[in-house]
């Protein structure tokens, strides 16, 4: 059973503030479960900070909150001052939405330092953080996705006419999305080439790549989360999210008075719900997700399309697995209980550096000096 849990949140991301909310929720729920919790805040400027005084979102309202600096060490976290040796971490929980927290960088650092993680690993995170790669992966598995085109900023500037011609084949209106952002940030609907140019200008302010995809009029937005239990998965009830706009916006999700409404479980025909669960099962079996992930789907009539998958979903999808704070706490406990360091595999050592492998042939001395 894990005793000490590190919760990572923040990071240099457009979703920094949302990550702080998710992170402090996890910190306080796990504290209530009697774990020793080390909150690890990633400032926008880089590095890591930690303090027992991190108690609420209010502690991070200043632009540059000041807490003691920490760093990852083998098996744990090293405090820069006041600690003689690193604090061992039994499980790490990733609450970083977007940026290098969600794209696999943080999970790679945890793996490099032999810290067990309760969150998805590096390859999975890298694929699903990038909408272009996730669409390629979905198509490769035969999953239904809408027609789309990935556009790089440089190619758009150099080959605008050709790109516009390709988009015409998709047909207007189209949805324009930065490839590596979440929370609907930078996502717009373009009904004409003129609107497309404005939409791409916004996307390229935020990312190097954009995904242009068919806009599905009258679509329904449905979410499904999956959590890992050993070698099996548990799926959440389906959630339908309602919007007053063409697309669900960042403002509807987070700003001002809550405008977003959702229904759990979603009122869907049984065959449609079955299609969503089947797609989630396929994703889980092929990618062996660790921790919790959430799939987002578009539904039009009887048709279901895979939209994207979040490896660090909002609030870690606690609300999809429990209605009360106690149930949310138990859900997070189940995640960290699943975290375990994989048994080490044998690493082969050839001994080639102990041999004079450049001792024969012409020019060997020159090559030996170079290497």
Textual characterization of the structure:
The chain has 371 residues and is of the alpha+beta class. The chain has 13 helices and 17 strands. It has helices at residues 16-32, 99-102, 105-112, 122-129, 131-140, 153-158, 160-170, 193-206, 250-254, 270-287, 318-321, 325-338, 364-370; strands at 4-10, 36-42, 48-50, 69-73, 76-79, 87-88, 91-94, 148-152, 174-178, 188-190, 209-214, 220-229, 232-235, 239-242, 261-263, 292-300, 303-310. A 7-stranded mixed β-sheet has the order 6-5-4-3-2-1-7, with helices on both faces. Strands 12, 13, 14, 15, 16 and 17 form a 6-stranded antiparallel β-sheet that branches. Strands 8-11-9-10 form a 4-stranded antiparallel β-sheet, sandwiched between helices.
- Give the fraction of residues assigned to helices: 25-40%
Strand order of the largest sheet: 6-5-4-3-2-1-7
CATH architect. name of the largest domain: 2-Layer Sandwich
Alpha-carbon distance between the two ends: 48 Å
Number of separate helices: 13
Main sheet properties: 7 strands, mixed
| Radius of gyration over C-alpha positions, nearest whole angstrom | 23 Å
Going by helix content, strand content and strand pairing, the class is alpha+beta
How much of the sequence is in beta strands? 15-25%
Count the beta strands. 17
Q: What global shape is seen?
A: globular
Q: Mind telling me the CATH superfamily name of the largest domain?
A: ATP-grasp fold, B domain
CATH topology of the largest domain: D-amino Acid Aminotransferase, Chain A, domain 1
CATH class of the largest domain: Alpha Beta
* Stretches with pLDDT under 50, minimum 5 residues: none
How many domains? The number is: 3
Mean pLDDT: 89
Give me the strand/helix succession.
EHEEEEEEHHHHEHHEEHEEEEHEHEEHHH
């Amino acid at each position: 059973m894990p005793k000490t849990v590190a919760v990572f949140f923040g990071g240099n991301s457009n979703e920094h503030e949302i990550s702080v909310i998710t992170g402090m929720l996890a910190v306080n729920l796990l504290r209530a479960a009697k774990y020793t919790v080390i909150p690890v805040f990633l400032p926008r400027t880089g590095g890591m900070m930690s303090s027992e005084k991190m108690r609420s979102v209010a502690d991070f309202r200043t632009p540059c909150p000041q807490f003691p600096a920490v760093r990852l060490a083998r098996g744990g976290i090293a405090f820069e001052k006041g600690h003689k040796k690193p604090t061992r971490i039994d499980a790490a929980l990733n609450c970083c939405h977007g940026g290098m927290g969600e794209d696999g960088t943080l999970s790679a650092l945890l793996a490099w330092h032999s810290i067990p993680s309760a969150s998805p690993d590096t390859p999975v995170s890298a694929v699903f953080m990038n909408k272009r790669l996730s669409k390629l992966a979905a198509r490769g598995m035969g999953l239904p996705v809408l027609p789309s085109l990935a556009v790089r900023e440089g190619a758009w500037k150099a080959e605008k006419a050709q790109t516009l011609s390709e988009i015409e084949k998709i047909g207007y209106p189209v949805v324009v999305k930065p490839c590596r952002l979440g929370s609907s940030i930078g996502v717009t609907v373009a009904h004409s080439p003129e609107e497309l140019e404005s939409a791409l200008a916004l996307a390229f302010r935020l990312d190097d790549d954009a995904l242009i995809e068919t806009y599905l009029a009258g679509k329904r937005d449905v979410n499904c989360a999956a959590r890992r239990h050993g070698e099996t998965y548990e799926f959440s009830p389906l959630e339908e999210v309602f919007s007053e706009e063409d697309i669900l916006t960042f403002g509807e999700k987070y700003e001002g008075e809550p405008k977003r409404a959702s229904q759990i479980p979603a009122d869907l025909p049984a065959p449609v719900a079955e299609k969503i669960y089947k797609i989630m099962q396929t994703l889980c079996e092929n990618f062996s997700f660790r921790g919790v992930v959430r799939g987002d789907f578009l539904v039009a009539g009887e048709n279901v399309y895979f939209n994207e998958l979040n490896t660090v979903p909002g609030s870690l999808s606690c609300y999809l697995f429990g209605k009360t704070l106690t149930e949310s706490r138990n859900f997070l406990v189940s995640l960290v209980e699943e975290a375990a360091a994989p048994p080490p595999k044998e690493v082969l050592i050839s001994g080639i550096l102990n041999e004079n492998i450049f001792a024969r042939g012409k020019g060997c001395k020159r090559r030996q000096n170079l290497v």
